[in-house]
Design a protein that fits this description.
This protein has a domain of 65 residues. 62% of the residues lie in helices and 0% in strands.
Amino acid sequence: MSTTKNEVNEAQILASLIKRTGKTEVSGSAVQRSHRFPFFIFTQIENISKMSDVSISAIINQLLEVGLESVKLHLTDEEIKKINQISQEQQDRHLTNSKNNLKEK
């Protein structure tokens, strides 16, 4: 996974959000998860959110993208392929959860 000189990477996107020179939009399906953050990490996330005027959720997603992109630079193509694959079980679980959420509304 390499980026050419003209490609924008996820860290650059996040930096542009913090500097308020960029925008981001998220589309597609989502999975809701609960997570406990160490206090010193969450305060940084919250501060980035305030600086960029972007939701905490969007900042967390962007930070995850930055981290994944960074890690993949140190993996083989085969390892990246395994990380990116979506199993039938994962897909079925997501579809079941999506249907249950629709029923609740």
